[in-house]
Amino acid sequence: MVSENDLRQAVQCFGSVSYVMNFPNRKMALIEFEDIQSAKQLVTYAQTGTLCVAGKSAKFNFSTSQAIKRPTHIEDHPNNVILLTVMNPKHAITVDVINAICSPHGNVLRIVIFRKNGVQAMVEFDDIESAGKAKATLHGADIYSNCCTIRAEYAKPNTLTVIRNDCDSWDYTTNNFGRDMFPAMSKPQPLLADPGMVSMPPMPFAMGAGGRPVGMGGPDMSLLGGGHIDALDYERAMERFGAVQGASMLGGLGGYDPNYAMGGGFGGGGSGQPDCVLMVYGLNVQKINCQKLFNLFCLYGNVLRVRFLKSKEGSAMVQMSDREGCERVIRMLGNTKLHDGKIQLSFSKQTYLQDIGNPHLLPDGSLAYQNYTGSKNNRYNGPDAVNKNRAQPPSAVHYFFNAPPNVSESTLLNAFAEADVVGPDKITTFPPKSEKSSRGLLFFSDVYTSTEALAATNNSKLPNPNGKAPYVLKLCFSNASPDY
């Protein structure tokens, strides 16, 4: 069955999609772009070319409707607590974001965010009328342009329990959290938190969930499945253990507590969001290095650090800037064949990668550790940049941009030759958006060849005919038909 995400991915190369309404039983859908020009380009292309949706060719034409009417879903059992599921979350979702979109519809009392199955948030209003108004207005809406689409429904609990205020939960009715739940400490707080089971720099002592000092250890999270929790975990904990104890066992919030993600309640720390380190297996270290991994992974999120493991050949760790980027990488690159290997991905138990002063060398002579924090070649820097990135799984076609104006085929082919990879069989250039650069499509013989080429040549430098500073060639996978 074709999903809404399949439809968005198939047409997003023509412009930003503002809304999709899918009718799977009728094998049709309505797609609304943010501007008429994008729709015209899609229809024009579809008249002569082939456009695939979920691997099958599809037909496109104009609709008689000027805009898609957003649905207003009515539930049978209204409640003062609503559950918001955020689909395609390209930007960080925090209590500030949820409060900003909910508070115009009524008085928000409490918010709890869950991150086990995507991103979900429960919002408690002071009355059912406000909750119903928010639900009807928010359902089907995008928090940000072309992403973070909301599915709104009534939740089962009629009240939420929060023990501390942070980015994943907030109680707007009180600031007194957890003071009566745990006895006062009998001696002054230590200066530093316990170092834990992995190598970490010294971290200041901090109070954890419900006033519990970080490093003291926590409850047996196996009762709740461990790690992240979702709305169902929250409801079960409230029913089984009661509001105070249940919330405490959920890390004090009903949200994510990084101190338990590493097991045993040991203290954590580091830069960036937790759970943003990926384990990468199945690599051919004779042909892969940090830069090639960066060139692939940067298509799906900002890459902070890359480290090859000396103790386990063919394995590496990659730290992304956020969990959404990690999930895109797993979804798009999992089981991808690359240099006689197959990429296998999973989340690491480490919350971040530590800088290495003297990393070992890889077979090609490059360093086994690279820090890409602040790299200009990261593409997910701000809302506008995120919307422009059109994540696609590996394909036999590249979309190239930021090439020199009127770039020649020989210049492009030379970039692949210098990287010692097979170049494209065909090159198609598009009319330039400006006189400063060129863009177009590169067609390869197969997906395997295309993936190796992109890993080697993405972010490579091309000579500047009008100045000293070289152009940095940008590549990404495209869903364009090989017959384009």
**pLDDT < 50 stretches:** 71-76, 178-228, 248-271
Number of helices: 12
What do the pLDDT scores average to? 79
User: How much β-strand is present in the residues?
Assistant: 15-25%
Question: SSE layout and pairings?
Answer:
Layout: H1 4-11, E1 17-23, E2 28-33, H2 36-48, E3 51-53, E4 56-58, E5 81-87, H3 95-102, E6 108-114, E7 119-125, H4 128-138, E8 142-144, E9 147-154, E10 169-171, H5 231-241, H6 243-249, H7 258-261, E11 277-281, H8 290-297, E12 303-308, E13 316-320, H9 323-333, E14 337-338, E15 341-342, E16 344-347, E17 369-371, H10 383-388, E18 397-403, H11 409-418, E19 426-429, E20 438-443, H12 447-457, E21 461-462, E22 471-472, E23 474-477
Antiparallel strand pairs: 1-2, 3-4, 5-7, 5-9, 6-7, 6-10, 8-9, 11-13, 11-16, 12-13, 12-17, 14-15, 18-20, 18-23, 19-20, 21-22
Helix pairs in contact: 5-6, 8-12
Task: Please outline what is shown here.
The chain has 484 residues and is α+β, with helices and mostly antiparallel strands. It is 22% helix and 22% strand.
Question: How would you explain this protein's 3D organization?
Answer:
The protein is an alpha+beta fold. A hairpin with a 4-residue loop joins strand 6 and strand 7. It has 12 helices and 23 strands. Helix content is 22%, strand content 22%.
